[in-house]
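QA checklist item 7 of 12: single-chain prediction sanity check.
[x] sequence parsed
[x] length recorded as 184
[x] structure emitted
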Amino acid sequence: MSFIDQRERDRAHAGGMHVNFYEEAVKASEEFRKEYDSRMNVVKAAEMPFERSPDGLIKHIIHEKMNTKECCLDIYMQFLPPGKASGKHRHLSEEVFYVVEGKGYDLHWDVKFDCHDLMEFEWAAEPQKFEWQQGDFVYIPPYCAHKHFNSDPNNEARLIVVTSRIIKAMGFDWFEQLENAEGY
């Protein structure tokens, strides 16, 4: 004895459109695996491109356009000139950075989020300040507006910045440059 109503069974079989999404996905996966074998496993320093970006001078270590085997993370080195700052930006991905050289601080404007009928975001009027120096690791929450400052007037600071690009594939490629770095 079946508990399924015949009308539901008829609706389940309704429609005349046929596709081959599954078969295409299997073929695409096979092609990806072949192509993946040709990607870089080691990125030499000379292969890491520089970019004078709205966020300041960066050197891409791993980027989705660099043909590496890394498919989830973007990693770059941020150069902060003596006494200067990066641009101010926010993105839906978390960010972490390691201080290779120098000392300074970050300003973080935390976000408040609510979702009733629409997504609503509100950022703190006053930022939190986080001081850092060589050897420190700093975490930046998702969609937190942030800016890095080099507090040393005589020496450059260098940060290794890591973000995940997985969030983009999920449909949340939200990335905004709020202020440009000086000189851009």
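[x] summary fact logged: The chain has one domain: 44-178.
[ ] second reviewer sign-off
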